[in-house]
Design goal:
The protein is α/β, with parallel strands linked by helices and 561 residues long. 32% of the residues lie in helices and 17% in strands. The protein is built from 15 helices and 26 strands. Helix 1 runs parallel beside helix 9, helix 9 packs parallel to helix 11 and helix 12 runs antiparallel to helix 13.
């Protein structure tokens, strides 16, 4: 509460995945949030873009499905429906977020079609930590699509309304500014050039010669999508690992990574052995020159796919190395390969965050961010500003955004204290160094499970094996030797709900393929096995007299001696 007895106000920027959960956590802690969303609906990148409407988030193409499974990418206290399929389509995930907003009654706190133009320190900020937030209707901003990075002019500011907030949570995500690589000849390429930011469908490339550039998720998905309509060339840079969504045993891949691996003495050995084995079982990465020099645990280049294996094996997708230059309509690669007569180039080369509306430097010139747990700016004296979801990851990130939100809001509410500046600086340097080592630049792609556990320990909700063992031994073993479900962060500590969380974990373990059933389950009748058993018994029956005769002759021979 503020000094006048009213709930303290929080500005939440963005109603995407991180914005929705931040909004909900503000309400849990008794704060008064207002959420500004520039698009026509909630959902962030999962919100379909309307033609002619301004947007600042990438397109979701028609065939897109999620890389992670439903129980791993939903929030800890709001499970998916039993009838939801194990892997979400874009529409199914969008519906989940709408149900989430409806269940927690978030809609009345969200102002759609409203763009945050500027956030600056209020006149009394040095005393109160307050922030002044200027907004305007989305259609009134001159920037239009892909306006990330554009600084508002005085004319823009004159059309804005302003409000004062006690706290600010920036939840605009990391998919804001498309990254365009420096490739010689790209600017003079005569064909179509498109960034994955604008990609909609593969059919528009029917019978065209297309080059897709990229070594991560969107490059694999888009190359696979276009390959249904035409042959595709994929420039995989320094290499990539193509990881299957579905493992042997018909389990989604993220359900096969137990927490105990990450806390073993040799976590990289476990992860590398498992990942390489799964990738190699579907496609010879080494023989086909697809994989990078670094093993999976040390690499930041991953694709998820199941169909893409067959597209590569059948030649619908041809994988090339590192692109060196474009000359005319031809592409030249570092190993001497050449692709002539290209019609289109699609850049799947990533994004970066955008904080141009913030009158405060978050991203340094070299791309580094000094943020404690990628939330709190270390150099800021007043801890009233937080960043949620400004990173990518190697696992589902919605649970990590939720943990970030829970932590930030509890700090705002005065229920948790931040560590010393020295400790926060050490943490920020560690994660910046980790990302720099993997990518060669400050591109924040974090190990989702470990990063989430680190925040959970600060919150006091880490699912400790020994604490769980005292209450439910079976659940303790599943939490450490089974999948890392988000609901495990509601078993212990503040905001815990043992009954609901344990039930979600059990349901996730037991569900299996039930959502895929649309008819009677038939047990396969194996007459061949019965025949095989009869054959083995018959063979044993024939061999038994022979064995008995041999034993008799052997015994007779030795008794006569």
């Amino acid at each position: 509460m503020s000094s006048n007895g009213q709930a303290k106000r929080v500005c939440v920027v963005g109603a995407g995945v991180s914005g929705l959960v931040a909004l909900k956590e503000c309400l849990v802690e008794g704060l008064q949030p207002t959420c500004y969303e520039l698009d026509t609906d909630i959902g962030g990148i999962w919100c379909p873009k309307t033609e002619g409407k301004s947007s600042n988030t990438p397109q979701v193409w028609e065939t897109l499905i999620t890389n992670t499974s439903k129980y791993m990418m939903t929030f800890s206290d709001f499970p998916p429906l039993p009838e939801d399929t194990p892997i979400f389509t874009a529409e199914a995930l969008r519906n989940y977020y709408k149900r989430y907003a409806q269940h927690f009654q978030l809609s009345s706190y969200i102002k759609l079609n409203t763009r945050v133009i500027k956030i600056q320190k209020a006149s009394d900020h040095n005393v109160t930590g307050h922030w002044k937030v200027l907004t305007c209707p989305t259609q009134d901003f001159r920037g239009g699509d892909k306006s990330a990075g554009q600084v508002a002019t005085e004319e823009d500011l004159s059309r804005c309304s302003s409000e004062i907030f006690d706290f600010v949570l920036i939840c605009s995500g990391c998919f804001k500014k498309p990254y365009y690589p420096t490739v010689a000849g790209l600017n003079t390429f005569p064909g179509d050039i498109q960034h994955s930011f604008d990609y909609k469908m593969g059919s528009i490339y029917n019978n065209k010669n297309v080059l897709v550039i990229g070594s991560a998720f969107s490059a694999g998905d888009i190359a696979n999508d276009i390959a249904a309509h035409t042959k595709v060339c994929l420039s995989r840079g320094k290499g990539t690992w193509i990881f299957p969504r579905i493992m042997s045993g018909a389990r989604p891949s993220d359900l096969c990574l137990p927490r105990c691996w990450y806390y073993s003495s040799t976590p990289e050995v476990y992860l590398n052995n498992f990942t390489i084995d799964q990738c190699q079982n579907r496609l010879d990465h080494m023989g086909s020159a697809i994989c990078p020099i670094n093993p999976p645990a040390s690499s930041s280049s991953f694709m998820f796919g199941d169909e893409i294996y067959m597209k590569i094996m059948s030649g619908r997708i041809k994988v090339y190395g590192e692109l060196e230059r474009l000359k005319g309509s031809s592409a030249y690669f570092s190993d001497g390969s050449v692709i002539p007569d290209l019609d289109a180039v699609i850049l799947c080369t990533g994004y970066s965050s955008d904080f141009s509306f913030l009158d405060y430097e978050i991203i340094q010139e070299n791309g580094k961010m000094d943020l404690f747990k990628l939330i709190f700016p270390i150099q800021e004296e007043k801890r009233t500003l937080g960043i949620i979801g400004a990173m990518a990851g190697d696992s589902a990130l919605a649970p990590v955004f939720e943990l970030q939100s829970r932590y930030a809001v509890k700090v705002f509410a005065g229920k948790l204290q931040l560590p010393s500046v020295e400790d926060m600086k050490a943490d920020a340097d560690f994660w910046s160094g980790f990302c720099l080592k993997k990518k060669g630049r400050y591109c924040y792609m974090i190990p989702g499970f470990l990063f989430g556990d680190a925040i959970a320990k600060l919150l006091g909700c880490f699912p400790s094996f020994w604490h769980l063992l005292l209450r439910d031994p079976a659940l303790a073993f599943r939490a450490w030797y089974g999948p890392i479900y988000p609901a495990q962060y509601r078993l212990l500590g503040p905001d815990s709900n043992w009954r609901q969380a344990s039930e979600i974990c059990r349901r996730a373990d037991a569900e299996g393929s039930k959502p895929l059933r649309h008819g009677t389950v038939n047990k396969v009748k194996r007459d061949d096995l019965a025949a095989a058993r009869r054959g083995r018994l018959m063979n044993a029956g024939l061999l038994l007299p022979v064995f008995a005769l041999a034993l008799y002759l052997f015994h007779s021979k030795h008794t006569k001696m």
